[in-house]
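[recover] target loaded
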């Protein structure tokens, strides 16, 4: 017989005793999964209440249970997945779901925004040359150059609404001062922002850095709005382009 063959669940009156303490101790972070501690701020008081039950559901989610099975019942199988000795391996589908869920939360705000931006490629202002776009309409500042506004739109639609800029100069100023989670970086990562020096203007255009094409040669791909088929600062579409490192005045990371 396993300790949790009779599972813990919400009842009235509440389940209590040493078995509950054992489950709470595991859920507080004493498991084989580093960083899994859905009950870390809870009391190991031996009472199976709503906080412990919610931690159980969270533990199941991060162990890769199917969404429909992420309930608030602490049973023997979950215990064997969590314990540090003589543990039971996660089934392959559980491993895959766990890896996908961990990867999803590991994405930086910039990566999330970049991935969203890729889905916007092909959208353009109408008519060309008007600077009228859905991005400017969303921002409430339409008919103006919209490369920074496009980035704001992408961040807002991926859960980072604090990033809200309409001008490259302000992006740079906040990054230089370390405000609003922005900072200047030298070596860009996917999702960082490129600010371009074009036609003598060091704040002419901004876009998402996507990847190096040839780092030694300084060529990279970017995804940006209000751009065109040449290195100009006031194009009219969302595009992926090949850029030169020498044209970048600053790289900015959103943290």
């Amino acid at each position: 017989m396993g300790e949790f063959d009779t599972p813990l669940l919400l009842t009235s009156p509440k389940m209590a005793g040493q078995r509950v303490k054992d489950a709470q101790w595991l859920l507080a972070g004493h498991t084989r999964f580093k960083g899994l501690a859905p009950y870390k701020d809870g009391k190991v008081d031996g009472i199976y209440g709503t906080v412990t039950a919610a931690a159980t559901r969270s533990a199941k989610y991060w162990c890769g249970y199917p969404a429909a099975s992420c309930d608030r019942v602490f049973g023997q199988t979950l215990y064997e997945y969590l314990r540090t000795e003589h543990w039971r391996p996660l089934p392959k589908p559980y491993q895959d779901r766990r890896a996908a869920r961990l990867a999803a939360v590991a994405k930086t705000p910039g990566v999330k925004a970049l991935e969203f931006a890729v889905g916007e490629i092909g959208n353009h202002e109408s008519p060309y040359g008007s600077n009228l776009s859905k991005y400017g309409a969303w921002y409430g500042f339409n008919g103006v150059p919209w490369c920074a506004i496009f980035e704001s739109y992408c961040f807002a639609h991926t859960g980072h609404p604090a990033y809200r800029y309409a001008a490259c100069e302000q992006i740079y100023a906040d990054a230089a001062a370390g405000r609003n989670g922005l900072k200047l970086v030298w070596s860009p990562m996917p999702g960082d922002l490129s600010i371009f020096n074009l036609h003598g203007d060091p704040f002419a255009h901004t876009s998402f850095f996507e990847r190096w094409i040839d780092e030694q040669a300084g060529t990279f791909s970017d995804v940006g709005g209000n751009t065109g088929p040449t290195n100009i600062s006031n194009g009219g579409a969302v595009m992926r382009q090949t850029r030169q490192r020498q044209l970048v005045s600053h790289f900015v990371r959103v943290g």
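[recover] notes: The radius of gyration is 25 Å.
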